């Protein structure tokens, strides 16, 4: 039998669908799972879709692969991934490629890549986005690892990846070692921000106009035909229009309002703090999930905390809906701008040389944050690859300026009515911070100098200064 061009070990839903995607695209795929049952059922159910080589043992699996062997590992992040790698490595030869396609934390990927490099094995941490359906029909793929490995791996991954409207595969070599998993992590952070912003838009429409979830679903479906056209708006419309079969109520009203998280949003914020990258939208979204899960605190607070809020008094319903749409778009621009800044900061810190425009390109289709908007980001980076922030690109500067008054109205109405809109409002504060002529950071520098002699710089002279606060309060050069 012909040897396999690619192998997949770990055949839970994502691995199974990736394996099927390879096979459907004409590759011979060796498939393996720790308990062979899953491998047999894959071949039983889908064997007719292409060429599979079912392997009961890891040794059979490795023997079934053409050299250099290319192996996709799709198991749980953390210990299980290490366990599979440790079992595989003794069976491999120099030049073989291991692709970790799970949601690994990028420092783990950097560690694994360095360790395997010593042994002559290429380790590629590849972000894969698009959920189960994406894995089967075409995900967005973000492979990192050694550039050399992409010569073998790239054409295979590009074949199974989603294609943008212009035909470009949503897959490119992101950068060395952990760059791929880092970019996937930021993708998920942006996903958190996007989801929170959409949630806030829903709250405002519901509280402000007393609309039903179904009516809001219809509004979102309508927004989905314009600038906000995106997978996440589309699925939100579906969720809001769903009726619960048991109670006849809107499904969203019977779902417990505590948001789960597997960790990628938190990792994004942790890394942003380390890099000094102010991803306020992602952070607010991650914290909003955490607040939602503080059941005991929320119950205690609900009893005690005053509202002093006034009802929304909205006369122009259509005008309010349009304001919320514009505020959502502007806040979304901020969240993406911040995510791209974080990618740049990490690229500088770790020497990854990531091309942000290419990242926008490979997020245009296949992934969870896919949106018409990504075309605009791609174009922005094509106009200027070194943009200081997406917000200064002429298209985005204009788009945000056009919605700015609406954004301010929505944030202030939310505050007056006591409806939480943390991502909307912090994004607006971020925007205002960036454009401010002077920030209160000067006060902070004064405070720091007062209590800790931490010194400050002057606007009108070179050098570093300190005021003798506890002495005669003259200024000295530090
Ligand atoms: C994707 C998704 C995927 C998954 C996240 C959700 O790109 O396909 O981002 O990775 O849906 O794990 O994470 P939370 O459970 O933290 O929301």
Draw up the topology in text.
Elements: E1 6-9, H1 13-24, E2 29-32, H2 36-46, E3 52-55, H3 58-63, E4 70-73, H4 79-88, E5 97-100, H5 106-118, E6 122-129, H6 131-137, E7 140-143, H7 147-160, H8 179-209, H9 213-223, H10 231-241, H11 251-254, H12 264-275, H13 280-292, H14 295-304, H15 317-350, H16 356-362, H17 373-383, H18 394-417, H19 422-435, H20 441-452, E8 465-467, E9 475-477
Parallel strand pairs: 1-2, 1-4, 2-3, 4-5, 5-6
Antiparallel strand pairs: 6-7, 8-9
Helix pairs in contact: 1-6, 8-12, 8-13, 8-15, 9-10, 12-13, 13-19, 15-18, 15-19, 16-17
6-phosphogluconic acid is lined by residues 103, 129-131, 188, 191, 260-262, 264-265, 367-368.
Hetero groups: 6-phosphogluconic acid
In N-to-C order, the SSE pattern is EHEHEHEHEHEHEHHHHHHHHHHHHHHEE
Estimate percent helicity.
55-70%
Average residue pLDDT: 97
The largest sheet is: 7 strands, mixed
In the predicted model, the low-confidence regions spanning at least 5 consecutive residues are none
